[in-house]
Amino acid sequence: MSKYAIIETGGQQLRVEPGRFYNIRHFVSLTPNELEQNTKILIYRVLMIRQESTIKMGHPWLKGAIVKGRILHSCLEKKITIYKMISKKKTRRKLGHRQKSSRFIVDSIFLNGKEI
């Protein structure tokens, strides 16, 4: 908990720490063919970095900040069910889909070429 970064990817913001894994809906820069196991990824959209008691914030992103990691595996999330019913018309419609997500592990956090 002494060092962490807040990144933006997949339409959401995540607080990431080295050595932990996270699920992300999709990586914009990677095609489905490249989402294989142990694919190395670099995330440049770093909003904030905290190291011990110092905090560095970007506007909107930090320059020279990189989060390095690798993809563990791709998977499908739980099925989302959409049920529409119009009363008194006997109309019912049931739809659903499963979103693709990727689990990745953060290896290290870099700021200006130096690992923090």
TrEMBL record:
Cellular compartment(s): Plastid, Chloroplast
Its biological purpose: This protein binds to 23S rRNA.
UniProt GO MF annotations: rRNA binding; structural constituent of ribosome
InterPro entries, per database record: bL21-like, bL21-like_sf, Ribosomal_bL21, Ribosomal_bL21_CS
Protein name per UniProt: Large ribosomal subunit protein bL21c
Protein source organism: Marchantia polymorpha subsp. ruderalis
Keywords of the record: Chloroplast, Plastid, Ribonucleoprotein, Ribosomal protein, RNA-binding, rRNA-binding
Assembly behavior: Part of the 50S ribosomal subunit.
NCBIfam families assigned: L21 (TIGR00061)
Annotated Gene Ontology cellular component terms: chloroplast; ribonucleoprotein complex; ribosome
Family recorded in the similarity comment: Belongs to the bacterial ribosomal protein bL21 family.
Pfam families in the record: Ribosomal_L21p
GO biological process per UniProt: translation
